[in-house]
Amino acid sequence: MEEYWTGRAEGYSQVNQGELATEQRRKWREHLIAHLGGKKPEETKVLDIGTGPGFFAIILAEAGYQVTAVDYTEEMLKEAKKNAGNLAGKICWKQMNAQELSFEDHTFDAVVSRNLTWNLENPEKAYGEWVRVLKKGGVLLNYDANWYHHLFDEEKRREYENDRARVEELQLSDHYICTDIDAMEEIAKEVPLSRIARPAWDREVLGKLCVKQVKAEEEAWKEVWSEEEMANYYSTPMFLIIAEK
Q1: pTM of the model
Q2: Segment 181-196 mean pLDDT
Q3: How far apart are CA 110 and CA 190, in angstroms?
Q4: Alpha carbon separation from 149 to 53, 156, 234, 245 (Å, rounded)
Q5: How far apart are CA 44 and CA 64, in angstroms?
Q6: Who contacts 75 (Cβ-Cβ below 8 Å, separation ≥6)?
Q7: pLDDT in tens, 100-115
Q8: Residue 6 class from Cβ within 10 Å (0-12 exposed, 13-18 middle, 19+ buried)?
Q9: Which one has a higher pLDDT value, 195 or 38?
Q10: Residues 61, 67: contact at Cβ < 8 Å?
Q11: Which of 82, 84, 147, 191 would give a disulfide with 88, using CB separation of 3.0 to 4.6 Å?
C-alpha cells in the first residue's frame, strides 16, 4: 500500500493541482465551510486525514482554519508542501497512519477526509481513532464512494464499462486508465470495503462510537464534482458522511 501511493504521489499531485487551478477550488471550499459549523475559522482546529497532495489542507488553511494534515507516505507530504506554496508554513504536516493516530483525545474541532476510507485495511478502527481525537461537539466529514465494487458485481461492472465508453465518446481523460489499474485493483481485492455497501456500513459503525448523530449526503458529488469527474465516475457517486460527537 505504501509503495503504491508513494509511486502515485507525483501523478496524484497533478490531479490536485488541476483542482486548485479551477472552479473546483471554490466549490470544495464552500462545501467544506458550510459543513464545518459556526465557529470562526481561526478558532477551529481541523485534522485532514489522508491529505495526499494537500488539497483539503490548502483550501482550509486559505480560509483561515488551523489545519493539521497527515498522510501515510512521505512523498505525498512532500508534494503537499510544494502545492501549498506560501501556505505551507501555516499547516502542521505529519506522517501518520490514519488507523493509529498519535494525537491526544479531544484535540480537534473537525476531522475531514476524502477518498481514503475505502482503501484502509481496518476502516472500523480508523473511524474509532477519528472520533477519539474529536472534541465534544466536533464534526467528522468523510467524502468517499463505493470504489471498485465493479470487481465483485456484474451489474456494477456493466455500469463501469458504460462510464469508460462515455468518457471516450466525450473525448475526456479517463481517470482509471491514468492510473496503474492492475496495482490498484489488486489493492481493492485485499481491502474489506471494496465489497461492502456504503454508506449504510459507515452509519452503522459510527452509530456504535458514541456520536450524537450520523447522516449521509448521498448526492454530495453533484455539488463538488467537475463535468469530467461526473462522466468518469457516474456509476460510483461520491457520498458525504457527517458525524457529530
Answers
A1: 0.95
A2: 91
A3: 30
A4: 25, 7, 13, 30
A5: 9
A6: 5, 6, 9, 10
A7: 999 999 999 999 999 9
A8: middle
A9: 195
A10: yes
A11: 84
Looking at residue 146, what is its pLDDT? 97
**Strand partners of residue 243:** 140, 214
How far, CA to CA in Å, does 215 sit from each of 122, 123, 206?
21, 18, 10
Q: How far apart are CA 185 and CA 195, in angstroms?
A: 12
- Sheet of 134-144: strands edge to edge? 91-95, 66-71, 45-49, 108-114, 134-144, 239-244, 213-217
Cβ atoms of 133 and 243 within 8 Å: the answer is no
Helix axis angle for 2-20 and 181-190, nearest 10°, is: 120
**Residue the block writes with cell 466549490:** 27
Lowest mean pLDDT among 143-152, 180-189, 205-214, 217-226: 180-189
Residue type for 34, please?
A: A
Q: What is each CA distance from 9 to 2, 16, 75, 76, 179, in whole angstroms?
A: 11, 10, 6, 5, 11
How far, rounded to the nearest angstrom, does the alpha carbon of residue 32 sit from its chain's CA centroid?
Answer: 12
How far are the Cα atoms of 7, 152, 154, 174, 228 from residue 165, in angstroms, in the given order? 28, 20, 17, 10, 13
Q: Rounded CA gap, 77 and 82, in Å?
A: 9
